[in-house]
Design goal:
The complex is a heterodimer of chains A (about 350) and B (about 130). By secondary structure, chain A is an alpha/beta fold. Chain A is built from 12 helices and 10 strands. In chain B, helix 2 packs parallel to helix 3. The longest helix of chain B is centred in the middle third of the chain and has 14 residues. The chains are: A alpha/beta (about 350), B alpha/beta (about 130).
Chain lengths: ~350, ~130
């Protein structure tokens, strides 16, 4: 490790020196230095100019990793499942990065990030890197910089990157735009069959894991999920009705996708069902590659990332060009109900 | 550019299984706007140093009630340095006899807190140590 890296890289001292050390940070991170990697992650997470520059330098190296999203309600066992899956991928010799997001307080901005507690089996393995993130005000289940962190891990050669979302409710579905494979984790006793047909989180599942499958009620959960999936992906039914065999052909519903999400029972605490779950994940990757969905997902992922950056940049440019006083004036008029917000936007934009 | 958050690793090295104090401190630091990474019980110094590296923290808080602090703390400090993280501030909480305080300070520990320490003092000193 270069001696320059031993010091905390402080920016602001000398612009030129910093730029030099930034590029050496990028280079040594690419060469596998973990201290450089962790510093880069911090710069990217804090969205510093240096972090953006680093992302630009790393970008050509990205696009190789398999991104697995893990989401589900709080307490379903996402962290424990990530822990088990990571151990499984390590037996295959793959390098694994984990980005674990937990919520920030909306009041103080502080956070307690506790996902590592369930991942202690991974400690001491240089082929694993776990980074906890606070959501910092984002509402979609990820933090704003999560995509950036994933890119850094991808660039420096982690083959599997698992992103664990904030314990998600029903509509925290940003993960589906980021990941190649989205794993939705359910557990027995969380809701009835109406929950299972609601829009939102179940729709984004590529694979459903019913964790804590050693608990009572698991059969009901499986049944509810299965019937919800069958509604979404009609299949041919053959059954006995009043002693007669009946056949109901699947309607020619528009086929959005030939992939039908499998449901896998797991017990993360014992490791039961983990090899089978990993096999389903592998099958999904195979499906993505063969159907061409891999490229389609990459494209839509990059599109949403580009859009987000564009929105942010446009807003920043707008705030630079429009005087604070004009903005405040407009806000005041909106506040007094003499101007509708939509009108205010039109006036502000036309003015610059 | 978003505001820089203070990141703190709260860890329990050694074999005692009491983490109430660690949780109280974690919660207090959270309420002071910091991002606290909590590692859970029975961590080895190696695990703590590795977590501090992966999380790029500014501060490590060690909670020790087993009396093994004179063995565990120097080891954590040593490993942090070996990893290139000598700048990380280390605080210790738990049952620490007064006669050990000078030695701990000498090793480079930024603060030691026993039973009854106020969380406000801890927050203030953690903030000051990071700003320094």
């Amino acid at each position: 490790m270069a001696p320059a890296l031993r010091r905390r890289t402080s920016f602001g001292k000398s612009k030129r020196l910093w730029r030099l050390s930034l590029m050496s940070l990028v280079e040594s991170a690419l060469a596998g230095d973990r201290l450089s990697l962790t510093r880069l992650l911090t710069q990217v997470e804090n969205d510093t100019p240096e972090g953006r520059q680093a992302l630009a330098a790393l970008f050509p190296h990205t696009g190789r990793a398999h991104l697995i999203g893990v989401t589900g309600a709080p307490g379903t066992g996402k962290s424990s499942l990530v822990n088990r899956l990571a151990l499984h991928y390590r037996t295959q010799g793959k390098r694994v990065a984990v980005v674990a997001v937990d919520p920030s307080s909306p009041f103080t901005g502080g956070a307690v990030l506790g996902d590592r507690v369930r991942m202690r089996d991974l400690a001491g393995d240089p082929g694993v890197f776990i980074r906890s993130m606070a959501s910092r005000g984002s509402l979609g289940g990820l933090a704003q910089a999560t995509a950036g962190l994933v890119q850094v891990f991808d660039a420096v050669g982690f083959e599997v990157i698992m992103v664990e979302t904030v314990g998600a409710g029903q509509s925290e579905v940003d993960i589906a735009r980021l990941a190649h494979t989205t794993l939705v984790v359910e557990a027995p006793g969380l809701g009835d069959d109406i929950q299972a047909i609601k829009a939102g989180i179940l729709e984004i599942a590529d694979i459903l894991a019913v964790n804590k499958a050693d608990r009572p009620g698991v059969e009901n959960t499986l049944k509810a999920l299965k019937s919800a999936l069958e509604l979404a992906h009609p299949v041919r039914h053959v059954f006995r009705h009043h002693g007669k065999m009946e056949t109901v052909e699947a309607p020619d519903a528009p086929v959005y996708n030939s992939w039908i999400p499998p449901i896998q029972k797991t017990v993360a605490t014992t490791g039961e069902g983990i090899p089978e779950l990993a096999a389903e994940i592998a099958r999904h990757v195979e499906h993505l590659r063969q159907s061409g969905d891999w490229a389609a997902r990459e494209r839509s992922r990059l599109r949403s990332e580009l859009d987000a950056l564009l929105r942010e940049a446009l807003f920043a440019r707008f705030r630079e060009q429009v005087k604070e006083t004009r903005y405040e004036e407009a806000l005041e008029r909106v506040f007094r109900r003499s101007l509708a917000p939509g009108e205010a936007v039109r006036i502000l934009l036309d003015g610059c | 550019m978003s505001e820089r958050k203070i990141r703190v690793l709260v860890a329990k090295p050694g074999l005692d299984g009491h983490d109430r104090g660690a949780k109280v401190v974690a919660r207090a630091l959270r309420d002071a706007g910091m991002e606290v990474i909590y590692t859970g019980l029975r961590q080895t110094p190696e695990m703590i140093a590795e977590a501090a590296l992966q999380e790029d923290v500014d501060v490590v808080g060690l909670s020790i009630l087993s009396g093994a602090h004179m063995a565990l703390v120097p080891r954590v400090l040593e490993l942090l340095k070996a990893n290139g993280q000598g700048q990380v501030k280390v605080f210790v909480g738990g049952i620490i006899p007064d006669e050990d305080l000078p030695r701990l300070k000498e090793m480079g520990v930024s603060g030691v807190y026993g039973p009854g320490a106020s969380t406000e003092d801890i927050i203030r000193q953690v903030k000051a140590s990071v700003a320094a």
